[in-house]
Write a sequence for this structure.
């Protein structure tokens, strides 16, 4: 069994590592030839639009999936003619456009922060009337890790905000003074069976995920979040791991964004769940039974961002797991992550505090 | 950091998979070019005596270790001139000779079954007088998984037994009617720090490990077994994971054999311990701090031997992990293993029984 993955970053690398014990081989496709998957999988390099390189990527693949959602939808449609693609391209298309995504949430009755389409300076003025201030202006496409965003505090900043979009279509979103950020990861099989991981609490820094903790133990929120994920996956005819980021505010859950792939906030599942998100994604796209998503104790995850971590001091801590991605340091670059596990939440939190201090996170 | 491994079997494969998250690359050396490590690591192929192939293996390695104990000691001594080898060759030499091994145990005050050197038919007669019957005649070298052994029940079988050795030096060992087989895995760092995994209970079939269960909860036996492992490692100036197989008989622990490497009976540690034996071996040989060996719940391991397993039925069980080695089926060949984990020993045993039934183990 051989699976093709569009994208060869750390997610592709961890998918490949999860595949070997199951007898599933992985071949990645990435525009960058020294991307993190290079060490652990076959890697074909070329632009996403390069039909010749794609033709070298496809032979012998049983299915294709992706670890990066900004793959051109046309690339996926081209591949689909030869090899089945999971999840189906519609999830990709919806997820690539922040406006389509929010409209999709709304159409399915899933609450979101208030939002408005913005295509011009004039529309921005009107949109502020709907969302109120503060608000966040975001490019509809190609933003990730906080890029392509402008936090709008005063009406006077509207011109600067619009100019920062560089003429790209945008969406204005109400700024939600949330109590916490949560995410829910679910996985759906080819035949429609679905399971959900325990809720995850996330902390972002500079728009980039910094820390995750799981499980976030709130049965009512868990039920609501899981139900949202199931509803979205069902509507999309989804297959694979699916991530939904949520704000918890005033007792409600508001959908912020979705990702049609394995997700940074689920990295704790390698040690912290019965079946990791990577293994479950591969099980789903290869038609194998889904694995249990039950938590094993209490877990935390800290991203290693920008600089090499103090490896020896991290590994000297019991219950701590290091995951490096084989990347060279660069400001704001995700170089790896550290997972901590413990038998109770207090023990987890103590260990997590130590790791955060070591990593300056 | 790059580590060379002599041998590219499943142990090399699992060492390589454990290395990537730590930023440790692996290059294997194996006489067989399609050995299981081929998918996940660089693989150099050649006979162990081929200086030319070894010269292609060594460049850029920070240390060399092994996953197979029948590497010629001269090969290791040659490599040592260029690259540090962990564990040091003495462990290999002692472990390669069943007689030297038993004498080494005895010299360190570690009880063993009664044994006698056998170099001729005449010596076998005399040896039977020492060990009594039944007894087991074994070649001193190159036996593994029950090969090169003759179970001697009656004096009249002595001639047939000696002939089955093909003229090779042998050892006669008392047959111990043990209550159970146990093994203890320990790991020692370059600077002499050492930790021990929980005791493991093993069941062999046809001389091949079939099932392991851990922890085997007996604090007194654990203390004795750990102390034996520490004593042996200290005497050998050992670095890396070390395995000691023991018979539990009449309330005593008798040392049966040692392995200077990661060990089949420790495969449960991937999911069942804070730090797997593979990660801890790499930590030891690269000079990193050793990881916690504490058990995570109760684990069991079943070897997949001879035939492809029913993958879908195995993966449909919660708390079950599949590890395939990328080998094609062949009678008595280890193709993979299945680990089960549970929160209590009864749950583990139920799951283990189901998996054994599925695998016919």
């Amino acid at each position: 069994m051989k699976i093709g993955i569009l994208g060869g970053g750390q997610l592709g690398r961890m998918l490949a590592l999860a595949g070997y014990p199951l007898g599933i081989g992985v071949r990645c496709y990435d525009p960058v030839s020294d991307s993190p998957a290079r060490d652990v999988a076959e890697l074909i390099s070329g632009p996403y639009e390069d039909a010749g390189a794609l033709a070298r990527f496809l032979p012998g693949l049983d299915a294709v999936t992706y670890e990066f959602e900004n793959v051109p939808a046309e690339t996926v449609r081209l591949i689909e003619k030869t090899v089945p693609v999971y999840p189906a391209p519609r999830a990709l298309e919806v997820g690539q456009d922040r406006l389509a995504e929010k409209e999709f949430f709304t159409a399915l009755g899933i609450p979101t922060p208030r939002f408005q389409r913005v295509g011009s300076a004039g529309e921005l003025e009107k949109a502020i009337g709907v969302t109120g201030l503060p608000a966040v202006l975001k490019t509809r496409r190609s933003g990730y890790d906080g890029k392509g965003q402008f936090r709008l505090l005063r009406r006077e900043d509207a011109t600067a905000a619009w100019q920062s979009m560089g003429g790209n279509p945008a969406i204005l979103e109400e700024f939600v003074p949330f109590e916490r950020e949560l995410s829910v990861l679910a996985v759906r099989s080819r035949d429609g069976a679905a399971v959900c991981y325990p809720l995850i609490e996330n902390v972002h820094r500079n728009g980039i995920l910094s820390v995750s903790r799981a499980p976030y133990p709130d049965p009512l929120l868990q039920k609501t979040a899981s139900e949202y994920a199931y509803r979205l996956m069902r509507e999309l005819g989804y297959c694979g791991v699916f991530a939904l980021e949520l704000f918890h505010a005033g007792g409600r859950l508001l959908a912020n964004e979705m990702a049609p792939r394995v997700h940074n906030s689920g990295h704790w599942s390698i040690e912290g769940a019965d079946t990791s998100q990577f293994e479950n994604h591969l099980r789903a796209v290869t038609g194998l039974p889904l694995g249990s998503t039950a938590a094993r104790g209490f877990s935390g995850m800290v991203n290693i961002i920008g600089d090499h971590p103090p490896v020896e001091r991290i590994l000297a801590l019991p219950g701590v797991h290091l995951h490096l991605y084989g990347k060279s340091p660069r400001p704001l670059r995700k170089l790896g992550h550290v997972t901590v596990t413990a038998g109770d939440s207090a023990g987890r939190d103590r260990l997590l505090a130590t790791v955060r201090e070591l990593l300056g996170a």
About this structure: Chain A touches chain B at residues 13, 17, 20-23, 25, 39-40, 274, 283, 288-289, 291-292, 294, 296-297, 311-312, 315-316, 318-319, 321-324, 326, 336, 341 (CB under 8 Å). Chain A has three domains: 2-85, 114-174, 180-359.
